[in-house]
Prior knowledge:
The chain is of the alpha+beta class. The protein has one domain. The protein is built from one helix and three strands. The protein has one helix at residues 19-30; strands at residues 10-13, 34-39, 44-49. A three-stranded antiparallel beta sheet has the order 1-3-2. The radius of gyration is 10 Å and the shape is globular. The two termini are 13 Å apart.
Amino acid sequence: MPAALASTTSEYQVAVVSNHLTTNASIIELFGLAKVTVNEQENRVVVEPLGRY
């Protein structure tokens, strides 16, 4: 969630892409806070804030 409120794009790697992560990513997108891309092959997450808050 904090990455969705940042002023720039955040990218990080996770040990496991869990259901919890993908659910949170969907909710963040539904609220229009950021575009979240989850790459399950590389276990990488990219969060691009939309700046609408």
